[in-house]
Amino acid sequence: MTLATRPRPARKNADDSRSSGLEPPELATKKAPTQLRAVETFERILSTCSELLAEVGIERLSTNLICRRAGITPPALYQYFPNKYAILHELGRRMMWRQNEHLTPWAQVATMRLPETEFADSVAQVFLSTLHVTEDTAGGVWVMRALRAVPSLQHVRMASHEAVTNLVLAAFQDSYPAVDVAQARLTIRLAIDALYAAQELLVDDPQQDPEAVARVMSEMVAAQFVKLRAS
Fold first, then answer.
1. 24-78 topology per CATH
2. Contact yes or no for 98/137 (Cβ under 8 A)
3. Which residues have CB under 8 Å from 146's CB, separation 6+?
4. Which pTM was predicted?
5. From the centroid of its chain, how far is CA 214?
């Protein structure tokens, strides 16, 4: 008669150790690559993570899986990233920056002074252009989902929205110096969050028509901006 032995627990990697949410994951890169070969490895990690996100999603993604696909060793990855969340953090930061690039030329005095219908059209155009950034980014849909679903990554989205709020607010103040700044900031921030939520709707429900969503959202935003101008 033999005694039953307790099975050993599976070995956890750096990603699994923080999956319980008891300890927030490290998000900063460990070091910036300087040599050409190091830069190539750094970028390969990011591009491989993007590809795998589109294939397996956030939960099944792991640093071990990234290493196998990228053809590198775990120590090579851990030179730059402490875990998968740090890689997602960098991907999210880059995608939000590319989206915001489309907003900078839009957030001008001339735009803020457009008649309501033309202003709504301009909002629709910038809405669709930033949506295309997400769609054209490898794994972009899953990066967007990660920025919403992973608590430790939500600050990337929030910081981006705050930066865009300040950008638009500055242009609006230049156009309408007498505006109530607190009310303007609130209106602009809510508009940005609503537009982003509409993009998330399109990602989660592909049956929705992007043009129709852009039109409805832009008209809502334009109406609030016109109201703000008159305040």
1. Arc Repressor Mutant, subunit A (1.10.10)
2. yes
3. 53, 58, 88, 92, 153
4. 0.82
5. 19
